[in-house]
Amino acid sequence: MVTLKRLVLDVLKPHQPDALAFCKELAQLGPDYRVSLNVDEMDENTQTLQLEIRGESIDLGPIEEAIARMGASVHSVDQVEVLNQPDEE
Amino acid sequence: MGLLGRASRLLSISDSEGIIRRYLVVNGFDGALTMLGLIIGFLVSSSPDLEVIINACVAAAIALGMSGISSAWVSEVAERKRELRELEEAMIADLRRSAHGQAARWVPFLVALVNGGAPLLISLLIITPLWLAQSGVPLPAPPLHLAISIAATVIFVLGVLLGRIADVSWVRSGLRTVVIAALTVTLIYIFTG
Q1: Domains contained in chain A, CATH given
Q2: Cα–Cα dist A64/A75, whole Å
Q3: With contact defined as beta carbons under 8 Å apart, do A23 and A49 qualify?
Q4: Predicted complex ipTM
Q5: What would the pLDDT profile of B36-62 be if each residue is shown by its tens digit?
Q6: Chain B nearest-CA residue for A66
Q7: Which chain A residue lies closest to B92 (C-alpha atoms)?
Q8: Residue B183 confidence (pLDDT)
Q9: Would you kindly state where each structural domain of chain B is located, as residue ranges?
């Protein structure tokens, strides 16, 4: 089975929710999600972020939904790391 | 997430906690001072029937509540729509279904509720002794004097809240609002007494 282990996204978000609340919301989507965020640019209303999410099996759909729910949008998927593991019988 | 949690989240995402706090204190103070003024007015005149005083105070409390709700609603709806439009332009996206869109719809309602509810509830609290007296409950002092004491206490507490918000001496801030109330009472006595 191929699982997504690491994801780096380029995200545009409003100033609210702040970085901490934004990361916490995303980390809650998976029991082992580790989220880190780097603010690349900031203007009067928005911030451009580089968002990194690590986990045993990342599900991209709910992450994109949560990002949209917080008023942000994914500009691009910059890096991915996937692993092909044999299914355990 | 409970109702309070959701409200807190919408206020946080729209940076509205400060506005809610300000409206609570400012309009609460408005309600307390109006009731104090009314009661002093009844005290300096040949005090009419308790029922007349209660009706006048309740009518003023309802008017303050309605004024608070409608003024905050109208101004906040316009303000939130403008803010959402600006954010949508910056994000180049439709944010109506996002938390920001939800906040733009619900925050005016919350702000209006606080802006109208604070003076209404504070006014009703201040005239509680009048109701108790009317119902025949024995009171340790005349109901109008008790109502004035409650008004002074509420005004002091609102001052204390202001002091805590501004992170300055709460005693000084509380006393300052009481001095404003005393000045109001003096003016009423000068012009009507």
Answers
A1: 2-82 (3.30.70.1340)
A2: 11
A3: no
A4: 0.78
A5: 999 999 998 876 789 999 999 999 999
A6: B98
A7: A73
A8: 96
A9: 3-192
